[in-house]
Specification:
heterodimer; A: mainly alpha; B: mainly alpha; 10 helices; globular
Chain lengths: 132, 201
């Protein structure tokens, strides 16, 4: 970084006040300015601007439609997922309200039914020999 | 200011007639600046159109009409940067094409058929453009805006959004780098005394 003293030496316009460097470059750049006058715009210049604006407007318009559709789809998916989440939480909370014994009993019931149906015997029917 | 505030405000609200007025008022000046920044007459209109298209789509972000001109200059500088970067990439990828120096020589040969003043102007133009192409796009654009376009430090502050001291330092360094390129160019052409005199005149 430059210190204040160096900055002061550069001068008000960013030119170095020592060594006469600006004497070389300054006039050359002035001559360059004279050698490059402002060109006159061709007859197609302004219509060309409007063609570009219209072309870009077409692209941005299409992009805007795609973006709107995408946003709608994303919002719908979001709502759907929130709904599913709500249903699963409600189901889980119903299970959570059971006591340990009730839950165990419900599981055992299921197991007995499975075993009984596998053996082809209905346990609710009394055995022909009285269960002996 | 080449356009009144009401025209700019109307254009900001989407008035195409007002926008056309702005284009008419500034196109010559902007094309001139671009031609001196990029140094390729054949691409000046293309870059100029890009500046006005960017202006059209960014006018609603302009805070107040007072800062319109620095805003337009900033768009011009950005478009010139983009062009110079693209050109640099193209040049790097086309190694077999004509070198910059050959193009300069071809231009000089072409201008040799014209009258003496025009030939000298073409030589100065080619020499300065070759000189500026030796430094970075940053240096090139900053020096052109300051020394060739004649923008004040206050105006440059508005264009670049940096403080005056930082700009002075950047300008000083840019000038030093161009001077080094100038000295190098001089030492590479020791026999061409008349040409050196012409540049100094």
């Amino acid at each position: 970084m430059m210190g204040d003293s160096e900055l002061a030496m550069i001068g008000d316009t960013g030119t170095h006040t020592e060594g006469g460097n600006t004497d070389t470059l300054g006039p050359l750049l002035v001559r360059y300015r004279r050698a490059c006058p402002d060109p006159n715009p061709g007859p197609a210049f302004t219509p060309g601007i409007w063609r570009r604006i219209e072309a870009r407007r077409g692209i941005t318009g299409k992009l805007r439609i795609y973006a709107r559709n995408l946003a709608t789809a994303a919002a719908t998916a979001c709502l759907l997922m929130v709904g599913l989440q709500y249903v699963s939480v409600a189901e889980r909370s119903a299970d959570d309200s059971l006591t340990y014994v009730d839950a165990l009993g419900r599981d055992a019931e299921t197991e007995v039914v499975a075993y009984a149906s596998f053996g082809g015997v209905d346990i609710n029917e009394p055995a022909p020999d009285g269960g002996r | 200011m080449q356009c009144d505030h009401s025209t700019i405000e109307k254009a900001q609200k989407g008035d195409d007639v007002a926008f056309n007025e702005i284009v008419r008022a500034y196109r010559k000046r902007i094309l001139g600046t671009i031609s001196r920044l990029i140094g390729r007459p054949e691409d000046v209109e293309d870059v100029g159109q890009e500046v006005f298209v960017r202006l059209y789509y960014s006018l609603d972000q302009l805070r107040s009409p007072e800062v319109f001109e620095p805003w337009l200059y900033r768009l011009t500088v950005n478009a010139a940067y983009d062009y110079l970067r693209r050109r640099k990439r193209r040049q790097e990828s086309r190694m077999s094409d004509l070198s910059e120096q050959q193009v300069v020589l071809a231009d000089a040969a072409e201008s040799g058929r014209q009258d003496n003043d025009r030939q000298q102007a073409a030589e100065v133009r080619d020499f300065v453009q070759a000189l500026l192409s030796e430094v970075s796009e940053d240096d090139q654009i900053l020096l052109t805006l300051k020394e060739v376009e004649g923008l004040s430090l206050k105006e440059l502050e508005a264009v670049y959004g940096v403080n005056e001291n930082a700009l002075k330092v950047r300008l000083f360094r840019a000038r030093q780098r161009v001077l080094r390129a100038y000295e190098k160019a001089q030492s590479e052409q020791p026999d061409d005394e008349s040409r050196r005199k012409a540049y100094r005149r």
